[in-house]
Structure formats: structure tokens, C-alpha cells
Amino acid sequence: MLLAVSALGASAAAQTAIKPAVVYSTGGKFDKSFNEGVSQGAEKFKKETSIAVAEFEPSNETQFEQAQRRFAQRGQDPIVAVGFSQAVSLEKVAKEFLNTHFTLIDMVVPLPNVQSVVFKEHEGSFLVGVLAALASKTGKIGFVGGMDIPLVRRFQCGYEQGIKYANPGAELIANMTGTTPAAWNDPGRGAELAKGQFDRNVDVVYAAAGSTGIGVLQAAKDRGKYAIGVDSNQNHLHPGTMLTSMLKRVDLAAYQSFKSMQGASWRAGVQVLGLKEGGVDWALDQHNEKLITADMKAKVEAAKADIISGKLVVHDYMSNNACK
Amino acid sequence: MDDALSLVFVMLAATLRVATPLVLCAMAGLFSERSGIIDVGLEGKMLMAAFFAATTAAVTGSAWLGVGAAIVAAEVLALLHGFACITHRGNQVVSGVALNILAAGLTVVLGAAWFARGGQTPSLVGEQRLMPLFFSKAGDNILVYVALASVPLTWWIVSRTRFGLRLRAVGEMPLAVEAAGISVAWLRYRAVLLCGLLTGLAGAYIAIAQNAGFSRDMTAGQGFIALAAIIFGKWRPVPAFGACLVFGLLDAIAIRLQGVRLPGLGEVPVQLIQALPYLLTIFLLAGFIGRAVAPKAAGIPYEKER
After folding, report:
1. Rg (CA), chain A
2. Nearest 10 degrees: CA dihedral of B25, B30, B31, B36?
3. B226-266 residue pLDDT tens
4. Core vs surface per residue A190-217: b (16+ CB within 10 A) or e
5. What pLDDT does residue A324 have?
6. With an 8 Å Cβ cutoff, are A30 and B10 in contact?
7. How confident is the model at residue B255, as a pLDDT?
8. pLDDT digit string (tens) for B161-210?
């Protein structure tokens, strides 16, 4: 034991030994989407440093506060809290443990020991909207959101702008799964919503709904329609019907939090990651390369370049709670 | 005209897809409650069945083995309920709630241990799922037809057979049944086993027909909605079936109405649409269906006279 401690001490000279932890959101670590992205970041860190990452998957929202506090009491540091719904409890817990570093993904808590990482989902969604409009034959395009909150409206709004940019005549049919956190974890309802849209001639659907999205992507596969994944690269789930995925690099957010903590360069404050910062993007890999024509690729890359250069501004729903 | 026809078709299909597990569950609960055993554990049985259906289908590659495993899993819980309530005369509501909690926890724990995916099972493909039989758009797999057939079958068993007569009698006045020389316990066990069979099918439908795999708490309260349907239907198969269809139709309408501009009203808020089924439930319960009278002996453990 002593040996182990002294060995750790030796390496700590260059890199501080840390005890990182992750509190996932209610969608669960294996939602193949948002939370799974974070877990991939944590896995990467684990592999590189062989430092264990403590993890907790709450089964409901009331467990957020307990989990955050428990980790802080045990001396875990830094603690990554995944998802906007942890903000309220994190604000409380972070004030109690001023020496613990917290990273909150998807929401801002302005405290000196909290690092808030938010993404410009509207920019990434714009790009997949362009692809959806170009791939659609019927001109009717679907969207299935998770819980009806401004954050999800931001996905929808960016997506809609992308669709109109590529095909002004296209029509968007949007559904929200629900108004409670259970909406992130209801694949059956997601599938039903998607089928409802397909019945109305939709032929491309974008799911921004955590675990619920799995049902949407499955329904698209069953009906032979295109689907667009979210957060993680979901192209591999159903090669052939997965048009693309809107990447949100939550894996980077978690990984960098741990890594910077180790290198003692961890900073509190707000980080906004957009296309320019590589925080969001669209996914192209061996699973969907056959579906993306050269023309589509050229158009979406042009839009991407314009957004990065500032020539094209994608409106952010959350700036005024309206999509215009 | 074609448009209207196809709209009717897709609405009907959506209603049936959503109503199938409700119908199976309602018929299941009906058997149990008609025999005098209250079953709050429909949800738990269905969840456990869904888990074992997905697990077995994923491991063996056969949807049919999945259905079999679902039935076995639901029967095990049903027997547990019977053992607690019939043999040991325990409180039926408590036992049912306990089964729900057991299923919610056990499925996630076993799933996490076996597949290391946080309680989910691997996604099912091809042969591992029950596919639509006639209309690929409608999603009419075999279990949808089984659910439809279960209604007249339940009606026939309950009201036209000797077993059904005794079943009703044991739910109203078990003493009389005992006096006629028939075992109350054995009758009730048979009812509970029928309940297990049907909830097993409902769970299998959710995991390997409607969806492609199990995920945590995927039954999402449908067992309780089925329970409400039984009460709506006053413990009779055909009205209970009607109630399930109404719930299914409301759900289908809620999905179609979202984001649609209605003439004169503008866009209907999501929240209102989603509250619609519940509003209607209260409305119907308060004014239209009248008093629902449960089987007289439901919930009362039967003790033999000495």
C-alpha cells in the first residue's frame, strides 16, 4: 500500500493524481447517444491514464443531488455532471464543496468552481438539415425531439433553417416526445412518433431525443426511410438507412475536463463549442458514405465553411426563445 | 377520397399498435380480478416478460423462443403472486406492488450483468423480431392478431364455459364455490396462470415486435393504463377492449395533432395534446360510465371455514 502511494506520488510530480467521476443523465450511460458520448470520453481517459473513473447512472432526477454530493464527499475531483437537468442540484452542491471542481455539460452555472460546457447545437443541426433536405424526395422532413425544452427547440430550429437553406419549399413536421424527463427514455413512443410522420410522407427524420431516438432510428430502418442520429455517431446502428449523425462532442468535454485537471490547467467558466471549435459536426464514415453524394457533400461543406467564417449566421432559438 | 381512406387506415393501424399490449394486459387482469385476485403487478410481469423476450431472442436468435421465455418469466411472477395471495393469504395490493418493484430492479441488474449496456439488451435484427404479416406499414405482427382474438376468447371463457362460471362465482362468493365442492385455491391459481400467459405475450410484443430490444422501464406505465381499462370496462372483456382502443386512439390522435395548425385555433400546445387522454379519462370516469362495481370478493384473502 505504502509502495503504491509513493509510486503515485512520484508520477504526481508531472501529472497530478486525480479521482474523476461522472454523474450521467437519466437517459443512462448506454443511450447510444448523449450519455454514451460522455462515457466514451471517460473510457478514452481511462485507457490512456489507467486512472479509474467513478460513474453513477441515476434512475430519476432526485438522485442527481445525492450522487453529486456523495462523489464530492468521497473526494472525487473533478466531477462531470451530464445534462441540463443537473444544473439546479449542481448549483447547490458546488457551493458546499468549494474545493471540488465540477464540469457541467449543456447548461451554465456561474460559480468559481464550475466549468460549464455548452454547444452550438443549432450549427450542427443546420448542417444535417441541409443534408436532410437534399436527400428527401417528398420534400417532407421529420424531427423527433425528446423533452420539450428550449435546448431541444434549438436543435429543431437549427435543423429547420438548414432545411430551408437547401430547399425553401420543404416542409418540416416536428414532434416532441413528452414534457417530463421520461421523454428521454421511451423508444416505443419514439418509434410511434416516427411512424406517424412516415404516414404523412416524411422520408427523412432527425431524432434529438436520447434513448427515445433508438426507437426513431429503428422505425426508419423498418420502413426503409432515412434517419439522422444525434450526439454520438450513430451511423453504425443501421447502415443503409442512417443518413448521417449530428455530432456533439460531449466525449471531448469530459475527456478534456479530466485531462486538464491532471495537467493542472483546469479552468472554471463557460465554454461554448460550435462548428468553429470542433464541438459540433456532421458524421461521414464507411456506414453512410454511399448515401452522401458528391453534390450533397459539396453543399454541406460550403455551408459549414460559411458558418465558420461568419458569412452565414444560424439563429439560436435560446437567444430569444423563438425560431426567427 | 383516397387521402381520407389512407388516413383512416394509418390511424387504425396506429391505434392497434398502441392498444395491443393494453388489450393483452387488460384481458390478463380481467381473469385475475374476476377470480378475486387484484393484480396491480401487471406492469411488473409485463416488464419482466419484455426483458426475457429480448434477452432470449438476442442470445438464441429466435423470436419464438423469446416469446416462450417471456411467458415463462411472467408465469413465474404470476405464481409468486399466487403463492403470496392465495396460499399465504397475503395482501394482494402489496404483493402486486412488490412484484413491480422487483421487476423494475431485477431487469436492469440482470441486463447490466449479462450485457454490460446499462440494463439494455443488444438491438435485435431480422429473425430475432416478430415482423408484420400482411402490411409492412401497419406493423401487424402475429401478436396484434393474438390480442384481437384474446377478446372474444376471454368473453367466451368467462361467460360461456363451466370454468368461467366458477371463475365468476369464486370472485363474488368463494364460500359458495367451496360449498359446492370445488377448490377455491386451484381455481384462483388457474386464473392467475392465465393472467401470466397474457402479460407474457404483452411483454414480448413490447420488446421484440413493437421495439427491437429491451430498455429500462420500457413498459412505461401501460400496465396501469390496462388496469384503468378494466375498471372502465366494469370487469367485462368487450367494454374493457373498447377502453383500450380509446386509449390507443387518443394516443394516435395526440401524435398526429402535435404541431398541426387547426382551423380557427392555431397550433395546439404539446402539453394540452398530451394531457388529452388523461382529461378524457377523468371526464368519462366522472360522468359517463357510471359506477364500476368490482367483483365482491376481490382483494379479500379466502380462508376456509373449519
Report:
1. 20
2. 130
3. 998 998 888 999 999 999 998 898 888 877 777 677 777 67
4. bbbbbbbbbbbebbbbbbbbbbbbbbbb
5. 79
6. no
7. 78
8. 999 999 999 999 999 999 999 999 999 999 999 999 999 999 999 999 98
Q: Where are the beta strands (DSSP E) in chain B?
A: 261-262, 266-267
Across the beta sheet with A114-119, what order do the strands follow?
A54-56, A21-23, A79-82, A102-105, A114-119, A269-273
CA distance B170 to B281: 30
CATH architecture of B2-288: Orthogonal Bundle (1.10)
Burial of A311 per CB tally in 10 Å (0-12, 13-18, 19+): exposed
DSSP conformation class of A181: G
User: Can you list the domains of chain A with their CATH numbers?
Assistant: 16-120+250-273 (3.40.50.2300), 121-247+280-320 (3.40.50.2300)
Distances (CA, A) of B145 to A212, B19, B134: 26, 12, 11
Helix (H) or strand (E) holding A320: helix A317-320
Per the CB < 8 A criterion, the answer to whether B195 and B85 are in contact is: no
C-alpha R_g of chain B: 20
Which of B140, B205, B216 is most worth mutating to test chain A (most A CB atoms within 10 A of its CB)?
A: B216
Reading the block at residue B73, the C-alpha cell is 418469466
- Angle of helix B184-204 relative to helix B2-34, nearest 10 degrees, comes to 150
Q: Looking at beta carbons, which residues of chain B come within 8 Å of A241?
A: none
pTM (2 d.p.): 0.83
Let me know: does B31 contact B237? Beta carbons within 8 Å.
no
Using CA coordinates, name the residue in chain B closest to A225: B137
ipTM of the complex as predicted: 0.78
Cβ-defined contact of A59 to B216 (cutoff 8 Å): yes
Q: Quick check: A178 contacting B, CB < 8 Å?
A: yes
* DSSP E strands, A66-113: 79-82, 102-105
- Nearest CB to A192: which of B14, B137, B212? B14
Strand partners, A102: A79, A114
Task: Using alpha carbons, select from A36, A146, A149 the residue that is nearest to residue A82.
Answer: A36
Three-state SS at A231: strand
E strand or H helix that includes residue B79: helix B63-82
Query: Could you tell me which chain A residue has the CA closest to the CA of B118?
Result: A30
Cα(A258)–Cα(A278) distance, integer angstroms: 18
How many C-beta neighbours within 10 Å does residue B9 have? Answer: 14
Q: Are strands A242-248 and A280-282 parallel, antiparallel or unpaired?
A: antiparallel
Cβ within 8 Å of A, B 220-239? 220
